[in-house]
TrEMBL record:
TM segment ranges: none
Any one GO biological process: carboxylic acid metabolic process
Domain Fumarylacetoacetase-like C-terminal: 47-241
Gene3D superfamilies cross-referenced by the UniProt entry: Fumarylacetoacetase-like, C-terminal domain
Protein name: Fumarylacetoacetate hydrolase family protein
Keywords from the UniProt entry: Hydrolase, Metal-binding
A Pfam cross-reference name: FAA_hydrolase
GO molecular function: hydrolase activity; isomerase activity; metal ion binding
Length: 245
């Protein structure tokens, strides 16, 4: 059963078992409907390591080359948003959605071999790499483009690796309309390759997140849009967006 991190009606942060059929979460002998609690991101990362252009078709739609090694950038903790949250879009900017499989790290690690990489994975979640294209096009470090508050909706649960197939589907819908639909078997660099490359340079801590790249079909978000990111074996992450005044 999937694990859900939430804030209960008394304000305490808990991690409980999520029942998708009943849409409830249980902790300490009590069961709550999810609309009774605040669903939080399933982990509390020190950093989110993101991978750019990990699908050839997405690189093509962006008019960019496929990289010969993983293209990496960071999102800070302030970028996190939870299931059901409303993300504020920067005013007067073109902001786009990017559905992604998120990898949650389970232990501190450095210099991890590909063959051992899955041993450090606690599980998987859904993510939306919300991207301010207006400033991303003008920056080299993508702080305005990728690191603004709420730019990383993550959740709704943590699914263990055995619950998510190797060729899991990744889809995104805006107001019920499918915009992105692909599978993780189309990765240029798979999860073990990404972990090995990242940990060659960066120590990962428990709860850190790796965003594995988005498939083709990215598109602009507008004030009032409802976004759903679905990863096979995980579930559906939902969030709204509103334009900053």
């Amino acid at each position: 059963m999937h694990q859900m991190r939430f804030r209960d009606p008394a304000g305490a942060v808990r991690t409980g078992e999520y029942d998708a059929d009943a849409d409830t979460v249980s902790f300490g002998g009590r069961t709550y409907d999810t609309d009774e609690v605040d669903v939080l991101p399933p982990c509390d990362p020190s950093k989110v390591v993101c991978v750019g252009r990990n699908y050839a078709a997405h690189a093509e739609e962006r008019g960019e080359d496929v990289p010969d090694r993983p293209l990496l950038f960071l999102k800070p903790p302030n970028a996190l948003a939870g299931h059901g949250d409303t993300v504020e879009l920067p005013a007067e900017k073109r902001v786009e959605h990017e559905a992604e499989l998120a990898v949650v790290v389970g232990e501190q690690c450095k210099h991890v071999d590909e063959a051992d990489a899955m041993d450090v994975v606690a599980g998987f979640a859904c993510a939306d790499d919300v991207s301010n294209r207006t400033d991303q096009r003008e920056e080299q470090n993508w702080v305005r483009g990728k690191a603004f508050d709420g730019a990383c909706p993550l959740g709704p649960v943590l699914a263990t690796p055995d619950e998510v197939p190797e060729d899991a589907s990744v889809e995104l819908r805006v107001n019920g309309e499918t915009r992105q639909s692909s599978t993780t078997e189309r990765f240029i660099f798979d999860v073990p390759e990404l972990i090995a490359e990242i940990t060659a340079f960066v120590t990962l801590e428990p709860g850190d997140v790796i965003l594995t790249g988005t498939p083709e079909g990215v598109g602009e978000l507008a004030d009032g849009d409802r976004v759903e990111v679905e990863v096979e074996g995980v579930g559906v992450l939902e969030h709204d967006v509103e334009r900053a005044p």
